[in-house]
Specification:
The protein is built from eight helices and seven strands; from the N terminus they run E-H-E-H-E-H-E-H-E-H-E-H-H-H-E. The protein has 279 residues and is of the alpha/beta class.
Length: 279
């Protein structure tokens, strides 16, 4: 995998053996309409072999259309499918139907690799835990940030199990907040910590699958704007404001390129967390 130029040869594993035979890739990216999700799509685009399928999931049709146009401009030999879906309410049959209809259907050449990037997520209410009183908000938060991940992973594993030669990689976009407590970010920290453990269990249960949790760093996105304006804890809000003012926020493209380097080197222990600052 070359980060800048398209290559038809498959990437190599750390032991020098081929990670996958020649053939198209299947790629699923959640939250693909903007920010890091859109960057994952566009940075991957030049790496995808002809005949590959990239499926972007998000709630915004307009945002997905923009991502599709960008990917097609970079690599017209890739099929890009926008899927408008609310992950917080999607069911197992919903995910199975989307994957079957848009990945498995009319696939003459089996995929050499299948990757799913769990990027979609939300901050939730940015207030102290002692003030949490909305049961519906809490339930919806975990449906989106953990429940949908479980269901999509299960559907993805069932689909790819029918292609025994396919190399499967499952990537969780995580955060340092899943490792350390951030005051007034209780929901977000708990959701990220839960997803980290979820992917560790996934790796333990599926030793043939490459599983990674990746901390992309503080990104210059709409989510950061929300963090700077809505965070209840004064110290944390001021810290994010200072990072913005001092130019310390990272671009999505820069973070994705680091992620692709990690996947290319393939030296991580399956299920582990890797932070951008460790790359």
């Amino acid at each position: 995998m070359n980060l800048h130029n398209h290559v038809s040869a498959p990437p190599s594993m750390s032991d020098g053996t081929s990670a996958a035979g020649p053939g198209p890739w299947w790629v699923v990216v959640t939250g693909a309409s903007q920010g890091l999700g859109a960057a994952i799509c566009t940075c991957l685009a030049p790496l995808l072999p002809p005949g590959s399928k990239l499926l972007g999931m998000a709630r915004s049709q307009q945002g997905l259309d923009s991502t599709v146009a960008s990917v097609k401009a970079i690599n017209p030999k890739v099929t890009v499918v926008p899927v408008v879906i609310d992950l917080s309410t999607a069911t197992a049959p919903d995910f199975e139907a989307v994957l079957e209809d848009h990945l498995a259907a009319e696939q003459s050449t089996p995929p050499a690799q299948a990757l799913v990037f769990h990027n979609a997520g939300s901050l939730g209410a940015l207030k102290y835990l002692r003030e949490m009183d909305d049961a519906s908000h809490i339930s919806n938060y975990f449906n989106l940030n953990i429940g949908s991940v479980i269901l999509l992973n299960a559907a993805f594993l069932r689909l790819t199990s029918a292609v025994p030669s396919c190399v499967v990689k499952m990537i969780n976009i995580s955060s340092i907040c899943g490792l350390e407590p951030f005051k007034s970010w209780g929901l977000y920290c708990t959701g990220k910590a839960g997803r980290n453990m979820l992917f560790k269990v996934l790796a333990a249960e599926n030793p043939s699958v490459r599983v990674l949790s990746y901390g992309p760093g503080p990104l210059n996105t709409d989510m950061q704007v929300h963090a700077r304006t809505e965070t209840q804890d004064d110290d944390l809000r001021k810290a994010y404001t200072s990072m913005k003012e001092e130019g310390k926020l990272l671009s999505c493209d820069a973070s994705v390129k680091k992620l692709l380097q990690v996947l290319e080197k393939d030296e991580f222990k399956s299920g582990d967390y890797v932070d951008i600052y460790d790359v």
